[in-house]
Amino acid sequence: MTIDDAIASLAGADRLLVALDFDGTLSPLVDDPMSARMAPAARDAVDAIASSPDTTVALVSGRSLSDLRVIAEHGDDSILLLAGSHGAEHWTPADGTRHPAAGEPTAAEQAERDRLRAEAEALVAGVPGAWIEPKTFGFAVPSRTVPADERAELHARVDALMAAQAPHWRRRTGHHIVEYAFREEGKDTAIAWLRAHTGATAVLFAGDDVTDEDALGSLGPGDVGVRVGAGETAASVRVAGIPELAEMLVRLAHERTRTRE
Ligand SMILES: [Mg+2]
Question: Do 138 and 242 belong together in one domain?
Fold first, then answer.
């Protein structure tokens, strides 16, 4: 499918959901994860598509909801919906922060999470540039700042810990990151929730990483999946990078406004 075909098919939808990954899709990948911010062109594109008729925009990220709100500069008056922790945490303008039916981590889950996190921290302590990123439902091992020839050993060490102590946790990989979580929710869960919540008749989802493929693979006829950058994908459209996605969203916003008004 060409970008023109995708825009033409989405522009006339009765209710459109535009669901976007954050890191690498709207924001350049950076060494300090909490310093990530949307590229200016991406911010403008999100604003444009969010203000077009009968359209809802959601950010769908593996980040914890609280971190996502910081890096997306998302305030209580925002019209953007959020799905954090790959869909295990939600935010809507109507009811603010909440977790879905599965609920907050239990005391036992938190205790196991904190114990494993501490053990992982001890394991990576001597590796230059290595650290453990706390997550609501687990933790992650980013390796962007670790020397390239030490990354495999770093991940192998934490993998061994988790295989021995928490083999039931879900392991996910991304661009220079491995994440461990005691919840199963993937971005496909997030899309299903957002589709139902917004009553969307068509969905555009865009992402740049392996975990985005859960969402891309769950899309149906009439939806459009966009893969940002290289990599094997179930998406029907590929764009080269963040500027090209922003351009596509701006074009969609213009076409949708023209078609629907
Ligand atoms: Mg990403």
Answer: no
